[in-house]
Amino acid sequence: MRLVTPQRIAAAIAILVLATLPAWVTDTYYINITSQILLFAVFALALNVLVGYGGLVSLGHAGLFAIAGYTAALLMEAGHGHLLSDVAGLVAVVIASAVFGVLALRATGIGFLMITLALGQIVWGLAYRWAGLTHGDNGVNVSGRPTVFGLGLTGATSFYFATLVVFVITVAAMALFVRSPFGASLRGTRDQPRRMSALGYNVWLIRFVAFLFSGFWTGVAGLLFIYYNQFISPQVAALTSSAEALLMVISGGSATLLGPIVGAAIVVIMKNVVSAYVERWNMALGIIFVLIITFMPEGLVPGSVRLWKLAWQGMRKQPAASGTLKEQQS
Amino acid sequence: MSQWLTLAVNSISYGGLLFLLSAGFSLIFGLMRIPNLMHGSFFLLGAYFGVTFLAQGMNFWLAALLSAAAMAVIGAIIERFLLRRLAGQELAQVLLTLGLSFVVADACLMIWTGDPWQPETPHAFQGALQVEGLFFPIFRLVIVLVAVAIAIALWLLVDWTRLGAMIRAGVDDAPMARVVGIKVSQLFTLIFALGAGLAAFAGVIGSPVLSVYPGLDNEMLPVALIVVILGGTGSLLGALVGSFIIGFLYNFGQAWFPDLAYVILFLPMVVVLVLRPQGLFGKVVP
Q: With an 8 Å Cβ cutoff, are A126 and B98 in contact?
């Protein structure tokens, strides 16, 4: 394996840019937006494990995201320390993922999607209705950000660096996961479940472990989220949030490492830009969904490449172009 | 005792509404394999149409029928021009309907604002029926009657008519039904329109009880999902039984454990998934 590849150079440049960002962007607004992109990228990468590599589309991940957030936030509210609360949040999310996984993996495809949707709605219902525990619609306030190795994370810049560190760790974990034999076997269960099972792999177990892995990183993103917002409310667990995360994965291009990161950036930037001008973010979200699915089902990054190639061919060979376009569509 | 009876009546009438909602969902899912995540939106949009007509002073039943007809047309258009392009791609269809449901929810918020709309119960059905010192709200009984009548009509349609035989053939084996000359494609549009219309009808007749407000779509959709998972896809009997089970659990759960009502609703689904994944009345799909 070569040590210097174009991808690695690009990754190094990206890390360098991200690491020095606060030096040349002084406006805390943009730093906060970048923190948001990074934390949602962690969420999207986690969901991508199932959607992209496992072929299992979950619409309940906002529920897992919220379970980690709520557990930690409620423990902190009860006066416990950050470390204990965060660890408890991660333990809770892994347990919840196990429950979700056992139930949802009774099915694949659409059945899986519907069961995860229903499970996600249970979490939403708990957060919304069980007011005695979760304060219902009022949400839970998170009193402050922790101090890590003597560094307070209260400021926008220091929190940005903490998020960046978690993000880099997540990307590294995902890269390892994708290349590992386990990642290969998960892709195998996505493409050829029967052959995998004939080869002696336990397809169910592979999917289950992938679900736990995905759930764990979703929980990490959930913890980052409550520290970023210092607040969590039932809205976080709603179907819209699951759909937003799914849009990040699909719009960027699933089953790639870069796709969900690009998707998170697109959705967060659009959400902030669109919300600044119009109230109708949900409608914009829906329309983007519909447009992407109708015209670029493989995602914005690969889709743009495909359309660009088509346009390029069209310019070079005028008569043949219309034929290829029709073939592509049909 | 009287509290029990009141709860039981409420449960049955809620179950009737749920049946109207989930029968279409179940048929659409069973026949077309489209998990229509817009179904809650049909319910909501239909209810808003209904309350708008009612605000004009229209007769209650006329408003419900008109709203159902309008929704059926909208459903047919969505099926023909959007879902048809994605035939066979289940995931894309799910995401398309999900995206459209956001658009509908936001458009409703824009047009009908965030305040709840609660039309009056029609004059003829106001008040309560008094039997041996117990009161039964008449309108809720009427909802049950209407739901039962529609259930019987659907059952007659599906089990005893030529059209119903074609639908059943389509549910069982669409490619083979096509081979013997059944126009499955037209049936798809018809079923989708019927499902959308029924959801809208349920939305209107439920509006005096539930009231209409933003977020109602996302409240009804998972409930319809549970009913269908519970009863088995494509089975009308399953949708009927599932609706009443959920109707009872919802009302009794809310009275006894208000904090956990939503969780109790999902418990039977969990049990069914573990013990009988195809649903109570579903067939095993090979």
A: no
Token pair, residue A295, equals 């015209």
Domain of residue B148, residue span: 2-275
Domain annotation covers residue B283: no
Query: H/E element holding B131?
Result: strand B128-131
Alpha-carbon span B220 to B259, nearest angstrom: 18
Q: Are B234 and B27 in contact (CB under 8 A)?
A: yes
CB–CB of B266 and A117 under 8 A?
A: no
The alpha carbons of chain A give a radius of gyration, in whole angstroms, of 21
Q: Looking at the complex, does the CB of residue A295 fall below 8 Å from at least one CB of chain B?
A: no
Domain-located, residue B280: no
Return the residue in B44, B98, B250, B271 with the most chain A beta carbons within 10 A, the one to mutate for interface testing: B98
In a mutagenesis test of the B interface, which of A250, A293, A296, A298 is the best target, namely the one with the most B β-carbons within 10 Å? A293
- Report how far residue B15's alpha carbon sits from residue A189's, in angstroms, rounded to the nearest whole number: 40
Question: How many domains is chain B built from?
Answer: 1
pTM of the complete model: 0.83
The answer as to whether B285 is a domain residue is no
Whether ipTM > 0.90 holds is no
- Evaluate whether residue B125 is within a structural domain: yes
For the stretch B146-195, pLDDT in tens is 999 999 999 898 889 998 888 888 877 888 888 998 888 888 899 999 99
* Residue among B100, B102, B262 whose CB faces A125 most closely: B262
Name the amino acid, one letter, at A255. Answer: A
Distance of alpha carbon A286 from alpha carbon A298, whole angstroms? 17
Chain B: give the shortest CA distance to residue A171, in Å: 26
Q: Where residue B81 sits, what CATH number does that domain have?
A: 1.10.3470
User: Can you tell me the distance from the alpha carbon of B232 to that of B227, in angstroms, rounded to the nearest whole number?
Assistant: 8
Show the domains of chain A with their CATH numbers: 24-276 (1.10.3470)
